[in-house]
Fold:
Amino acid sequence: MRIIKATDYQELSHLAADFFIERVKENPEVTLGLATGGTPRGTYQRMAEDYYKNHTSYSRVSTFNLDEYVGLPADHPNSYHQFMKTHLFNKVDIPAKQRHLPNGVASDITSECLNYERLIEESGGIDVQLLGLGSNGHIGFNEPGTSFHARTHVVELAQSTREANARFFNGIDEVPREAITMGISTIMKSKEILLLVSGEEKAHALRQLLHGDVGEEFPASILTTHQNVTIIADQKALSDVPHG
Ligand code: GLP
Structure:
């Protein structure tokens, strides 16, 4: 694992955007795995600014998002479909047919999961997957205890995750209880992974990832066994890491 240290969130976002822009320039048909949450917002903003200024084209890029809440339609303000439109899709030129997120209101959720997995495979797999880190070690919405062999599936969200995400809703009661997420095995098949970690509230999780044991109780620990992972972390996130 390669660790890139950023001074603060702004620098982290800049470095992460440059990382993606470089991959898109190297391979205009790259398949990107995308994430939501507070952490990647600055990255997307930087990518949008670069698109505006330098016209880096995403017209042949395909994207697959990690997850979506069960029960929220694509046009719900808190759906991840909407998040992606607001923060990236409305600002760069990725054609709609090349953008993929799980459908949280599919009538048959099991088929939706299988179908999503099939679409990823048919696209040739994910070249670069962006990840954030949950304070409890979750990646995507793979909560502690999720099998490392899981593929795209439905999860029950941990109470701590619902509490953490309540800030995006009008209170915790509105936060869905379930989500569809790429599985750990889906994520691990990505050719390259970029993990972003920012802020003191992630310091403990980052320490555990870097210095703890690999096990399903801390899902992100599996990343230490992947061949090509880059972590960009800011000083606050590294504050609990020995020699961080
Ligand atoms: C969310 C998302 C994850 C995200 C993580 C951290 O629940 N499902 O994909 O990486 O939790 O979120 P944040 O960046 O807001 O701290």
